[in-house]
Amino acid sequence: MPPSNPFNTVAYDTVFNNLYEPLCRFCIRMVHDKESAEDIVQEQLA
Questions:
Q1: Which of 37, 38, 41 is nearest to 15 (CA)?
Q2: Alpha-carbon span 18 to 25, nearest angstrom
Q3: Pick from 24, 31, 35, 46: CA 20 to 30 A from residue 3's CA?
Q4: CA 40 to CA 2: how far, in whole Å?
Q5: What letter would DSSP give residue 44?
Q6: pLDDT band at 46 (very low <50, low <70, confident <90, very high)
Q7: Three-class SS of residue 8?
Q8: Domain spans of the chain?
Q9: How many other C-beta atoms lie within 10 A of the C-beta of residue 34?
Q10: How many CB atoms lie within 10 A of CB 41?
């Protein structure tokens, strides 16, 4: 029997899809740069 994967990709995808844009907008206000904000959010959700 293969080991079970504790990482639920469906749950992660749901969280990522629901929070990515709001977090990007929040970060853009902080760093004043869209690309940097997207990088920050992607790194934190990875």
A1: 41
A2: 13
A3: 46
A4: 35
A5: H
A6: confident
A7: coil
A8: 10-45
A9: 12
A10: 21
Summarised one tens digit per residue, pLDDT across range 20-32 is 999 999 999 999 9
Q: Are 26 and 32 in contact (CB under 8 A)?
A: no
**Distance between CA atoms of 20 and 3, rounded to whole angstroms?**
30
- Joined tokens for residue 18: 């629901």
Are residues 27 and 37 in contact, defined by beta-carbon separation less than 8 angstroms?
yes
Tokens of 14: 């749901």
Other CB atoms within a 10 A radius of the CB of residue 24 amount to 17
- Residue identified by tokens 């920050």 is 40
Q: Which residue, 17, 20, 15, is CA-closest to 38?
A: 20
If you count them, how many residues does the chain have?
Answer: 46
